Amino acid sequence: MKPPAMILSSVLLLGSWAAAQSDPFQRQAPEQTLPTIRAASTMQAPPASGTPARQSMAGSLQVPVQMGFGNPRSSNDGGTTRVVFDLASHVNYTLTPTFSGLRLDIQGARVIPSVTGRMGSSVTEYRAGNGQITLVTPFPLSLTDGWRAYEATIVGGTKVLILEFGATLTGGAGSSVRGAVLTSAPISTPAVKATLNTPLQADSGVAPGDTVTPGPLLPSTPALPGSTPDRPSALMGRVPGSAIPGATLTVPRIGKNPGLTRTVLDLPPGVSYRIVPGNSGLRVELTGVSVNALTQPSGTNISAELQSWHYEPTSNGVNIIFQTGWGTSIRSGWRAQLLPPSNGERSRLAIDLSPALADTTPLGPREKMLAGVPPISTNRGTALLSLAANYARPRVVIDPGHGGVDPGAVGIVVEKEVNLAVGLRVRDLLQAAGVDVVMTRSTDTQLSTDKNTDLNARAALGAGAQMYVSIHVNAMTASKALRGYGIETWWNPNHPLSQNLASVLQRDMLMTTGAADQGLHNTRSLAVLRNSRIPAALVEIGFTSHPVDGLNLKDSNYLDRVALGIATGIREALVTGVTANGKVTRGSVGGSDR
Ligand SMILES: [Zn+2]
What we know:
Layout (H helix, E strand, L loop, with lengths): L3 H17 L16 H6 L9 H7 L14 E5 L2 E7 L5 E7 L2 E7 L6 E3 L8 E5 L2 E5 L8 E9 L5 E12 L1 E2 L6 E3 L53 E3 L14 E5 L2 E8 L4 E7 L2 E7 L20 E7 L2 E7 L10 E6 L7 E7 L11 H7 L11 H5 L7 E6 L14 H18 L3 E4 L11 H10 L6 E8 L12 E5 L6 H16 L3 E6 L4 H4 L5 E8 L5 H6 L1 H20 L10 E2 L7
Parallel strand pairs: 3-11, 8-10, 21-22, 21-23, 23-26, 24-25
Antiparallel strand pairs: 1-2, 2-9, 3-4, 4-7, 5-6, 6-7, 8-9, 11-27, 12-15, 13-14, 14-20, 15-16, 16-18, 17-18, 19-20, 24-26
Helix pairs in contact: 6-11, 8-11
The protein binds zinc ion.
Zinc ion binds next to loops.
């Protein structure tokens, strides 16, 4: 409680500050003190922030008609990044602090879709669309640490929601915040799979986590000759040499491989190219070359990965559109390499198309920063401690599936080996973050040669832990091998928070890998989950039976990425209260700010 005199002085301070500024963002005098959260909250009631005279002086200070929610203003002050949204009265919002930033769920207004990069030192990305806004921070947020939020009324009567982010900020949602604050990630709906032309049916294969009878393996997809897997695919480039006037393009060569279609463009010297991923395919923009006649190739459904292709002439070249019918992104669904001429003068731009192609580049600086975040427990008084008061440190069980006599699924990789490799990486990341990790196994061994006894023994290790995460590799029978690729997460309805855990695990793994999303599933048939009485999830990190996905699993960069996704998901779940004795708390935490 602050003495009334202090509140009054804060109000006066805010009043003069607000009177001088049309918007808390457009600060022109850096020495002026910003209102505290409490001061901002006391400003909610009085409508005296601007007289008509001041409004006219300030010019265009009419309350903007809110056609949508978004397009915030931002500024940076030292390590603090401030983001301001106009807030129409009919807009409701929910704030969810997460391991990787703050999420806003908006009701009552359309969220203006947008993706932008860095807004300041403490907000590295802004994503908006589908009712949700995510502000990505390079440090984890808890209920009270790393951010604060308050509402204020600025001159002209416009209400704003002010969000501040900084690694050392404390406060969380102030009492002026009308929106709800979630301490547990909202449950996401199962992922949309409509863009995939070969969706994996949840009931089509083998029970996840169980061993498949290995069938004849499909040949794995060949690496691009001369490809360097450590380098991201080339989004743009230029063929060496001097341009040849009047050079024309030849028809793309197309090679079909199991699970992957390779297209090769023979490019004359001096041609520039740019590859643009999209929701239903890939566009290759070429400059410095043209096509003789715009004859379209005949036929559709060229392969499982390529429906069709066509030319689009441009003012200085030509575009080639590869229609896949499924989505590609900057990081996944394709890869490309410019190769030198094999004979003759033309270089080759080889582009592989497969929905199973994921990000196998080494973890970059941003991801490494994520991996190196400070411990989530003890010294910062996070929400975690109050939710898990029984434990000085959170404890998590990591279960690398199978082991010893039980290899799990066998295909391009052997499941038990990959599970362990990822499990050990997850352990290291979590321990570095101050989490106690119980491994069901840390070597190539089983807990019992009897499968049921083994699974029961694994589940029993969950006693006293906050959550249980089992790591597995998926497989399809040989006849369906091409239909199974990507990542999915299973959860068990035994504990009400299992789905929350599964949801953040799935989302974070997709974020770090760019892998195909096979969604969330629940079942009571998984023994290791069935026997669990704490929040539990089972991740399937890829398909050893798929010729492309199997190679992902063989790639240590991919395993690094999967492990980071699992670890960040677990830490987010811990920070947001998904624990064995935690509850989903919903509602305002107004008044609890310090
Ligand atoms: Zn398994």
